[in-house]
Amino acid sequence: MIKNPVQKAGIYLLIGDLCMDVFMQVSEYPSEGGDGSVQRIHQHAGGSAANTAMALAKLGGNPALLTHTGLDNWSQQLLPILESAGVNTGRIAGEEHEPTGLTFLVVSEAAERTMFTYRGANRCLHPDEITSDLLAGVEMLHISAYACLKAPQSEAVLKAVDFASKYQVGISLDVGVEPAHQARELLLQLLPKLTLIILGEAEARVITNSKSVEEAIATLLDSGVQMIGLKLGKDGCRLVTNGQDLLIPGFAIEAVDTTGAGDSFCAGIIHGLTHGWDLEMTGRLANAMGALATTHWGAGEMLPSMKEIRAFLSERNALMNDPVIHQILEQLDVSNESR
Q1: What's the burial of 330, exposed, middle or buried (CB within 10 Å: 0-12/13-18/19+)?
Q2: I want to staple 255 with a disulfide (CB 3.0 to 4.6 A). Which of 111, 220, 232, 247 is the partner?
Q3: Partners of 14 in the beta sheet?
Q4: pTM confidence score
Q5: Segments in the chain below pLDDT 70
Q6: CA 52, 7, 144 angle in degrees (round to 5)?
Q7: Which 8-state DSSP code applies to residue 322?
Q8: pLDDT of residue 39
Q9: Sheet holding 62-66, edge to edge
């Protein structure tokens, strides 16, 4: 069982990046030093934590994002997008001498993206900004592991986790490929305090220095992690606690762009966990949100709305007559009514 179950759900604090994402669709990648043509170009809000915050808001939650931006045109475009989506931006500070984070994403015809990010002002979050009042009423502190790459932002993460642990606030960590390699030692410090860790099989092996996924899972649980959300891409996910181990299949869907799928998946897991759902329901919602995210170009404001999620699940329920999906739809109706 997960410790400290949350009764009243919907208030979240997220630490991580806010970036402007510039997408370029290509038919093929040129060799190094070569030329390539771009078929389409799109611009959307992005950054892992910002994406998850917007997805949580679309589920009816009340997320606040804690990061920095530059005092530039990018931030002037991004902040209204977050606010319109329902994200509290009151804790986002402006940096005079650093630009807003910027990401260039090259997306292939197979919908896979290659990403180049300049994190800019995001890295400037300082531990002095982390105070206990930040966590008042918060049900889950969610951290993107990219915030663990460089001080002072990484030091702010450690302080926030200490406060959350002290005040019995749930803590979730989303681990990407780069942080698993470059911030491994810091991530190991966080493991004993985590309610939830979300990561892929490769990241799990890297963090735990394990030769197999099963060894990695055992190591994570032994370290004190209460729940593991293992992302399996189109195959769905595996949710593991000390008492349960569920393999939950994904949804077949025609993907356009996989950007933000993992961030949307995180929001589904967090929503289910903080609303007291069982693992099967939680994993099915997360899989649906991850799959739906791939049907749009871009993440951020393009991530699936509550209406889209309900329509997608209703269609699947009509085809499958699935009691789990039916139960999810009932609970989403309750969340929507209480918003």
Answers
A1: exposed
A2: 111
A3: 65, 142
A4: 0.91
A5: 1-9, 298, 334-339
A6: 20
A7: -
A8: 84
A9: 62-66, 11-15, 140-144, 170-174, 196-200, 227-231, 237-240, 245-248
